[in-house]
Design goal:
By secondary structure, this protein is an all-alpha fold. It is built from 4 helices and no strands.
Length: 138
């Protein structure tokens, strides 16, 4: 089996893994996330209880804490890379369709007209996403 260059990008490694093992890059990222998260949990659980809130931890404990945070960071990076493929965003669609009211009775047309007028008045009150203020009021 050929060794993968340690300087290879994550995409290159994922592509290589897919070719060799027949798994997708998403599966590689998910496995990487689980691996680092499990390591984080094991390392965190091995620490004494009061160490996480101690201001005067020994240098070796501080180094261990840095390693634990790195594991969580690696898990988060893998999760962020996998998220767009695991949970794709929904595309917004604008539907433009005319209504055919010819099959409706006069009463039904009045009801539809009132509903549409109410919907338009509510839509006029709610600002568009890009028109909303960016600062929060106190």
């Amino acid at each position: 089996m050929t060794k993968v260059d340690k300087k290879a990008s994550l995409q290159q490694r994922a592509h290589y893994a897919k070719i060799v093992n027949g798994i997708s890059p998403l599966q590689v990222q998910m496995e990487r996330m689980r691996y680092h998260y499990k390591r984080f949990l094991r390392m965190k659980d091995a620490l004494p209880d009061n160490v996480l809130f101690s201001q005067s931890a020994k240098p070796e404990i501080q180094a261990k804490l840095i390693e634990i945070v790195k594991e969580l960071d690696w898990a988060g990076t893998a999760a962020a890379l996998a998220a767009p493929y695991k949970h794709p965003r929904l595309a917004s669609l604008e539907v433009k369709q005319s209504l055919d009211l010819s099959n409706l009775t006069n009463e039904e047309v009045e009801v539809v007209t009132r509903i549409l007028a109410k919907a338009r008045s509510v839509a006029a009150i709610v600002p568009e996403e890009n028109e909303r203020p960016t600062k929060q009021l106190n």
